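stage 2 :: seqdesign
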């Protein structure tokens, strides 16, 4: 069976790549909702394209109001759901091999936004189903591929779908890594908030009080999404000397790998900090430009001694506890560790300060033992000392499927068969996937744990060999779970 599947996939390699490239060319970042398109035109267009391809291959498809689409292998009770997504994170400006939505193949890898997350793996799952179908493999249970449009911004699509449809007995998502991920840490997204009634925006390049001589931060901004380490942070400061800032910046770039530039404006100085993006679940892989900027503020805090603006004072206070490279959250007093999940991680990822108001969002992937009381409660206490409140945007408990369950063992066996491995153990991750709220759901593929794909960053890519192996592994898993005869 394995050899037949691999041979079929090898014969359809180029067609698989073309299908992936067709989807990658569609900018499916979440956009403003339109009538009949809850996530905007881009995700709806990508979904329509994927469903049309599946229908052309002989599958039964259904569009669930442009929240998700479903693709069924056969008309029978479901034994397995596969959850993948077609939406993507925003394009970053540093792509070098190609432009984000102009995919290319180079040195055996596919480059472009979505090639790894998650259009490539979604097509690999579709081709696993197609291989079984066209090889005439007989199954007793159906497998359904579910393609969503809002995984990157909260998974409201899957929530909508499962209010209408029952979950299959087993579910996996090809949106992580092999051998299998059976543990996903708890997830907290919370914002430190300081509000005033002033209306000045950050593009005005002027002070909120033109005649004031007090030092202040007129505006500051960093980050695109709560789950992406920001690669850029910038602020405009007033009544702080360029020499003071330049000296602190010179020292900072000696200590951490960032670039800092300054521009003189009518309303003061604009400071721009450049770092490196990464996924929030692995903050150690990035260079957080936001916390680097806060560290710069620490270096010039004496210059802000006379600051009166509440937002400026709040950001300076937060710079004491949102410490560069404090990935465990020790300064926030939320650091914990557990043998099942590993340690808690924390990353400050978004900042907007304008008109005297501030909102700074952090993302935490929480170890077992983390509760609302010992996380949100602790953050609330810290926020009060900084002149802020805490707005909880998301809180979810740890997701866990026992590693010795027949489902997990079956998936590991399929992986080892294709990859020639042995003794593989299930993994725990900080990233949340579609299966976080799905009973008996795990993440499975489409690359091995140590593979680098620049997920959410510049030059996102995936190896064609990984897609072919992943697709073969998915096909064997479908065969094993759905009653291959």
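stage 2 :: out
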């Amino acid at each position: 069976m394995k050899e037949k599947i691999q041979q079929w996939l090898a014969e359809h390699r180029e067609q698989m790549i073309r299908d992936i490239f067709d989807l990658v060319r569609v900018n499916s970042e979440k956009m403003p909702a339109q009538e009949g398109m809850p996530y905007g035109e881009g995700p709806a267009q990508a979904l329509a394209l994927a469903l049309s391809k599946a229908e052309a291959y002989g599958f039964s498809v259904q569009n669930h109001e442009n929240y998700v689409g479903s693709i069924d292998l056969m008309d029978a009770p479901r034994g397995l759901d596969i959850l993948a997504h077609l939406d993507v994170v925003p394009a970053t400006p540093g792509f070098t091999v190609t432009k984000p939505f102009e995919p290319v193949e180079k040195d055996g890898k596919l480059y472009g936004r979505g090639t790894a997350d998650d259009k490539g793996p979604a097509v690999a799952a579709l081709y696993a189903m197609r291989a079984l179908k066209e090889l005439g493999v007989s199954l007793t249970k159906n497998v359904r591929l579910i393609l969503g449009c809002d995984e990157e911004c909260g998974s409201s699509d899957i929530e909508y779908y499962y209010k209408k449809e029952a979950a299959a007995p087993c579910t996996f998502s090809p949106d992580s890594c092999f051998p299998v991920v059976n543990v996903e840490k708890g997830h907290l997204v919370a914002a430190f908030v300081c509000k005033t009634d002033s209306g000045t925006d950050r593009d005005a390049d002027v002070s909120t009080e033109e005649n004031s001589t007090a030092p202040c931060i007129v505006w500051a901004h960093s980050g695109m999404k709560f789950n992406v380490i920001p690669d850029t942070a910038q602020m405009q400061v007033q009544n702080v000397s360029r020499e003071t800032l330049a000296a602190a910046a010179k020292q900072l770039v000696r200590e951490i790998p960032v670039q800092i530039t300054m521009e003189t404006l009518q309303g003061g100085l604009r400071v721009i900090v450049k770092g490196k993006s990464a996924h929030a679940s692995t903050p150690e892989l990035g260079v957080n430009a936001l916390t680097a900027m806060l560290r710069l503020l620490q270096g010039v805090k004496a210059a802000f001694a006379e600051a009166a603006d509440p937002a400026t004072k709040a950001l300076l206070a937060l710079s004491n506890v949102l410490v560069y490279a404090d990935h465990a959250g020790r300064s926030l007093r939320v650091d914990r560790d557990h043998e099942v999940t590993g340690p808690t991680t924390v990353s400050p990822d978004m900042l907007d300060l304008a008109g005297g108001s501030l909102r700074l969002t952090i993302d935490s992937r929480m170890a077992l033992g983390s509760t609302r009381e010992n996380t949100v409660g602790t953050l609330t206490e810290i926020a009060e000392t900084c002149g802020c409140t805490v707005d909880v945007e998301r809180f979810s408990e740890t997701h866990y499927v026992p590693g010795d369950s027949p489902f997990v063992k079956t998936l590991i066996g399929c992986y080892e068969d294709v990859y020639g491995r042995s003794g593989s153990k299930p993994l725990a991750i900080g990233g949340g996937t579609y299966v976080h709220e799905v009973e008996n759901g795990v993440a499975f593929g489409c690359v091995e744990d140590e593979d680098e794909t620049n997920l959410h960053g510049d030059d996102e890519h995936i190896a064609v060999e990984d897609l072919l192996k992943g697709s073969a592994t998915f096909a064997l898993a479908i065969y094993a779970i759905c009653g291959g005869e």
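stage 3 :: structure notes
- The two ends are 11 Å apart (CA to CA).
- The first strand starts at residue 60 and ends at 64.
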